[in-house]
Amino acid sequence: MLEVALKLLKEFSNHSFDAYIVGGFVRDHLLGRDTNDIDITTNATPKEIRKIFKDKCLPNDNYGSVVVVLKGVRFEITTFRKDIGTIDNRRPCEVKYIDELYPDLLRRDFVINTICMDKEGKIIDYLGGQEDIKNKIIRTVGPAKERFREDSLRILRAIRFATILDFKLSDEVYEAIKEEKELVKELSYFRKKEELDKIFNSTNRDYGIKLLIELGLDKILELNNLDTIIGSRADSALVVWSLIDGRDKYPFNKNESDLIDDISRVLKLNNLDPMCLYTYGLYVNSCAAKIKDIDLKNITESYNSLVIKSRNDIDIDSIDIMNVLSREPGKYIKDIYSDLEQSILYKKLPNKKEDICKYIEEKYR
Known about the structure:
Blueprint: H1 2-14, E1 19-22, H2 24-31, E2 38-42, H3 46-53, E3 57-58, E4 65-70, E5 73-79, E6 81-84, E7 94-97, H4 101-105, E8 116-117, E9 123-124, H5 129-135, E10 137-138, H6 144-150, H7 153-165, E11 168-169, H8 171-180, H9 189-201, H10 205-214, H11 217-220, H12 237-242, H13 254-266, H14 274-292, H15 296-304, H16 318-325, H17 332-345, H18 353-364
Helix pairs in contact: 6-8, 7-9, 7-10, 13-14, 14-15, 16-18
């Protein structure tokens, strides 16, 4: 990936433009961490970028940014700029293109994200990002309060970087978050969820949650019981969300919502019970089992031993039911299926057509 990125930088140079890898990729490269996103900054304008890379450019709605795909690697390329003013503590009022790298770095969020790499692979570090990596600390570029007032999302990003990288917040950043935390209320729940998902998915999640609580952000985020997550065996953001009070305001797609609701329900049930395993499936019960410290081997064995795993496994269909009872279609079929599921799962009734037909005839005729 780095080889492809350096080739892209040289392509800019071949067209007489400066370009550098900047931000997370360089930071993670120095930390020996894998990363997929590569941001490029350049003095070429979006129009000039599109002219250089032509059919390799993808449509992109971000002003002043162009997405280029080269040899299967996705690059987001942004023109050197200076941000002027702020709208809603999130966006600049005006963006002015500039021709130098250093002033562009001064508009960025954290010092560890200002480290650059040139086309030869040489590190360029004007603001001391490597020293911050060495000291494992999160500092803002310039006064912390100003940076957070310019973009309140940076408050949650600071917690996220501290969590994922296992870094400390500088004293200035820590105090600025405490004083400016109300700004987070102005963020959309979608943006807040994006950052929280990354914190909740981290193996260092407990540290991040402790920071949120220490700084009073749990109340600002309207998450009432974050302290109960600390030390839990939840192994993904979705499982964490299933344990949280106050999640209703946050946006989840239907699949996420269904999983969260199901996990929340089965936490109160016996996860080795055949009907619970049948109704909610192996994955959901396994998620609950991890939280409740139930041996996953027992969950898997119990699930695999179920006589049926879906209604389709029952050795009879709705036409057979109607024929046995000599009746037209109706709601009664659904009720009979529910009865059959219970009876077969608890091994009160063999899953054989002959036995099932006899059972239906005796009970429902």
